[in-house]
Specification:
This is Acetate--CoA ligase family protein. Keywords: ATP-binding, Ligase, Nucleotide-binding. With 744 residues, this protein is α/β, with parallel strands linked by helices. The strands form 6 sheets. Strands 18, 23, 24, 25, 26, 27 and 28 form a 7-stranded antiparallel β-sheet that branches.
Length: 744
């Protein structure tokens, strides 16, 4: 008998089970460090470069299951849970061992009084108890692989719950098992249809009810393979399941409902694994607004992170973010089942000119490419479509040809065009028999092509035979109910395949050892302090970032000599460790052209600093750089992802327009250039109103050098702000005119 030396169930456990009426809904979890951080290879900052893939086979398909706190007393909450677990175990072929201190049988199965009295080593222990911590400790000696804790009352309830969850996390780590929960549910043990073929959707949710719409896709013939309700993620987290599902051959797409990420690095490593394997990850991530973020935190007890960083990080690693559960359903279903596109072109085909024009406007606005069909292709289509109708794209058939043999000819001719990768047919309402014949032709054509055929069935009823049987019965037609969801899904489909085709993991190219610049920079750091502008610029110099010619002086006479060396005209600025916004205090003087102006400026700057009680380390006499595009490049620390790099329009525009792009290191040159393309003001770099094009290559180089700083000084640098970075005309480089650095 397994663990027979450990004795019977403790009196404390007996009391806990009996006192809570066999109900597990009152208990705990932690904001602990990620479990995916044990990978052997580390980057220059000591963080993992590859995700671990937990072996979850025995979680989803165990050979033996212990149900601790099992019951068959009607009216007790644990009874329904026990019944469902027994039914699930029967479906997956697992042996069930009920555990309860006062029962000899449960639903006819032998019941064991304690964990120590289990007749065999079990793969999965389901804890139907209010406080799982002592049970986890008892399970430690049984070598159980996995446990599930349903109990609530942990980090989602506030500070005391978070402390209780921390104790649970510590117990799990000591035990060596892997835990799902707490504050989870029975979704992992749902019934999945086994009569459906094709690639499946694997589902991950932190709120069980939010996964119901995706689970219901089975009723429309779309296969689901797994459901991971992660709850508070005391141990197993969303990232673990993404990594596992990305390796499963039956999984065509991963659908996620995420309230809070446990650890940003683990999530990105998991997303990287999915991208390497070409497995799309589609996610609803709540917390876009302050209200949403508060709600998410109260429900899961996690940081949601700055949403702009979350959004950028997801795009950086190919995670497709959608807003609604309906979009999650439709996008995941399309990505799971559709074959890779043969072309980017989208053709809109309709029986109404108005419908085609309406949809085409929306699709074009969303960034889809609607190519104009060739003259030869239009002439071919006009064999079956009246000549007065437009067939350039969108294609308007006028209605009548779809009722006979011409309908299929038109569809096949469109799909044969090499510029066409997707055909979308919006049917705004049923109009039998015309719509019935059209639906059948589309379904038949989809079976005969490798290209994607999408249909939007706009009827609010949804009981029509053409919809229920013809369209939903086809494994090759992607059927939608709204224009918006179709456009979102098709854009994600084309974008995903474009992304994965060009994907190179940034972790493969991340630096493993510190650069010589790192040693120079560390000597300049002052823990817990803000550096003066002069010291911050020395930090930039250490990393090869160009700054103006300048000298730090402590007298008016020295300022005059410095101006002569720097070269007129000059800029004079107060420099001190507490100065963040010098312009507002009048501590910047520009365009100085004479010794008298230098002396006057020195006196005025020092008087203002004395009046404002601002300590100075001196006055900077700087080269004046006038012609260029003002940008900002900086580093900030995100609570989830760590150091992040930002680039945007600089000067006063950074606060007015907030036009910036963010990336999480590591990233390469391609991502740095993509960041610039995301800026609304990117055209300024191309040259406007007679200005010459800016030196974009130099700007990219600065972004990459700042990223290196973020990686190497991540634990020592709290914030870096280069503003403005003057990007000079092409071929002339970029100069950091001002800099702020705050050490941790």
């Amino acid at each position: 008998m397994l663990g027979s030396t450990h004795g019977t169930l403790t009196t404390d456990f007996r009391a806990r089970v009996e006192a809570c009426g066999e109900t597990p809904r009152t208990a705990v979890h932690s904001t602990a460090a990620p479990t995916a951080g044990d990978a052997a290879e580390l980057d220059v900052s000591g963080r993992p470069l590859h995700s671990d893939v937990p072996d979850l086979d025995r979680f989803f398909r165990p050979e033996s299951v212990a149900v601790i706190g099992a019951s068959d007393t009607e009216g007790r909450p644990n009874t329904g849970i026990t019944r469902q677990l027994i039914a699930w175990a029967d479906r997956v072929g697992a042996r069930v061992h009920p555990v309860h201190p006062t029962r000899t049988t449960v639903f006819g199965l032998p019941c064991h009084p304690s964990v120590a009295e289990l007749p065999e080593q079990v793969d999965l222990a389901v804890l139907l108890v209010a406080d799982p911590v002592p049970v986890i400790e008892e399970l430690a000696d049984t070598k159980v692989k996995f446990a599930v804790a349903f109990a609530s009352g942990f980090a989602e309830t506030g500070e005391s719950g978070a402390a209780a969850q921390a104790r649970l996390t510590a117990a799990v780590r000591r035990s060596g098992l892997r835990l799902l929960g707490p504050n989870t549910n029975l979704n992992a043990f749902e019934r999945f249809r086994e009569d459906l073929d094709g690639p499946a959707i694997a589902l991950i949710t932190q709120s069980g009810h939010q996964g119901r719409p995706v689970h219901a896709l089975q009723e429309l013939g779309i296969r689901l393979s797994h459901w991971a309700p992660t709850g508070n993620e005391a141990d197993l987290e969303t990232a673990d399941f993404i990594s596992y599902f990305a390796e499963r051959p039956e999984v065509g797409a991963i659908a996620c409902y995420v309230e809070g990420l446990k650890d940003g690095r683990s999530f990105l490593l998991a997303a990287d694994r999915a991208a390497r394997n070409g497995v799309p990850v589609v996610a609803v991530k709540v917390g876009r607004t302050e209200t949403g973020a508060r709600t998410a935190a109260s429900h899961t007890g996690k940081l949601t992170g700055a949403d702009t960083v979350v959004d950028a990080a997801m795009r950086q690693f190919g995670v497709i973010r959608v807003d609604g559960l309906d979009e999650l359903q439709d996008t995941a279903a399309l990505l799971a089942r559709a074959r890779p596109p043969q072309a980017e072109g989208v053709v809109v085909y309709s029986i109404s000119g108005g419908t085609g024009a309406h949809f085409s406007d929306l699709a074009t606005e969303a960034g889809l490419t609607l190519p104009t069909l060739s003259e030869a292709k239009q002439a071919e289509l006009h064999q079956w479509i009246p000549s007065y109708l437009n067939v350039a794209n969108p294609v308007d058939n006028g209605g009548h040809p779809v009722g006979d043999w011409r309908g299929r000819k038109i569809i096949d001719a469109i799909l044969a065009d090499p510029s066409v990768g997707v055909l979308i047919c919006p049917i705004t309402g049923p109009f039998p028999p015309m719509s019935d014949k059209l639906a059948q032709d589309l379904a038949d054509a989809a079976e005969a092509t490798d290209k994607l055929v999408c249909v939007i069935w706009g009827s609010p009823v949804g009981t029509e035979e053409a919809y229920r049987t013809t369209l939903l019965g086809s494994s090759r037609v992607a059927t939608f109910r709204t224009f918006g969801n179709c456009i979102t899904a098709v854009r994600a489909y084309l974008g995903h395949h474009r992304f994965t085709a060009a994907y190179r993991s940034p972790f493969d190219e991340a630096p493993r050892t510190p650069s010589p610049s790192h040693r120079k920079a560390r000597a300049l750091m002052r823990p817990g302090q803000q550096l003066s502008e002069h010291a911050a610029k020395q930090l930039l110099r250490a990393y090869g970032i160009r700054v103006p010619r300048e000298q730090l002086v402590t007298s008016a006479a020295a300022a005059v000599r410095a101006a002569g060396l720097v070269g007129y005209p000059v800029v004079m600025k107060a420099s001190g460790p507490q100065l963040a916004h010098k312009t507002e205090l009048g501590l910047v003087k520009v365009g100085l052209t004479s010794a008298s102006q230098i002396r006057d400026a020195y006196r005025e700057l020092t008087d203002i600093a004395r009046y404002e009680n601002v300590p100075l380390d001196g006055i900077l006499v700087c080269q004046m750089v006038e012609r260029g595009v003002e940008m900002v490049v900086g580093v900030t620390r995100d609570p989830l992802f760590g150091p992040t790099v930002t680039v945007g329009l600089g000067g006063v525009l950074v606060e007015v327009l907030r036009d910036a792009a963010v990336r999480v290191p590591p990233f390469g040159e391609d991502q740095a250039r993509t960041m610039l393309g995301e800026l609304r003001g990117a055209a300024l770099l191309d040259g406007v109103r007679g200005a010459p094009p800016a030196d974009v290559d130099a700007l990219v180089e600065v972004v990459l050098r700042v990223q290196r700083m973020a990686l190497e000084l991540g634990d020592e640098l709290s914030e870096l702000d280069i503003n403005p970075l003057m990007v000079l005309p092409r071929g002339q480089g970029a100069v950091a005119l001002d800099a702020l650095a705050i050490c941790r």
